[in-house]
Amino acid sequence: MKTIFTILLSLLLYTSGSAQNQIGIGVNGGVSIPVGDFHQYYSIGTGGNIQMLYDVNSAFILVLTSGYHVWQLDENAYNKKANELELNKKFTLESQFKMIPIYLGIRYYLGRGKHRPFFSLDFGGYSYEFKLSGTINSTLPNANTVPVEIPETKKSETQTALAVGFGYFYRLSKEWYLEINSKYNVLSSAYTITEPDKITTVTELNKVYGKSRKLNFVSISTGINYIF
After folding, report:
1. pTM of structure
2. Which of 99, 101, 136, 139 is least surrounded by Cβ atoms within 10 Å, i.e. has the fewest?
């Protein structure tokens, strides 16, 4: 990972002295679709990015990207799983997963005209925050209906990530470009909510109710870029 960053940064510094190289800035926003285990209990999220672009040559562009993505717990899906496990419990939960990625990547453009499809490869890291709070209620007949509170828990870390993608640049004018971008993002490790049968024991309520795992999501965004 360090070697890749060194190569990319060296390329940026080497080419920065050339007057023909162009620099651009851009913003975009869209949806963040959880995949695999991440999809089980979290609904489609939203996100956005800001980016700086550096034109290395006619085919390659370096891109520095930072953004913000957030997902909310799908409480219905979580309670459906609890019913499948016959836990006789109903969960009223608030859980949120937020992340801030920072990527350094490279794009390969398939054309230099008005229409510019491209492939992208990004490496970097991300900081995330996982939150969980709520209550547990028994669904058994004649059971104690007093909710059992789950104390609010938080977990935050910084980890590594990568993304591969495909996008499309459309030149609106000499300086302005419309961008449509899709990426498959791989987060090396992060805490999200665990299985419902793991948080029904009152004696365990002070634990962080999360499970560390690799998370994947697909981001689809649209934005605008200005090239100086």
Report:
1. 0.85
2. 139
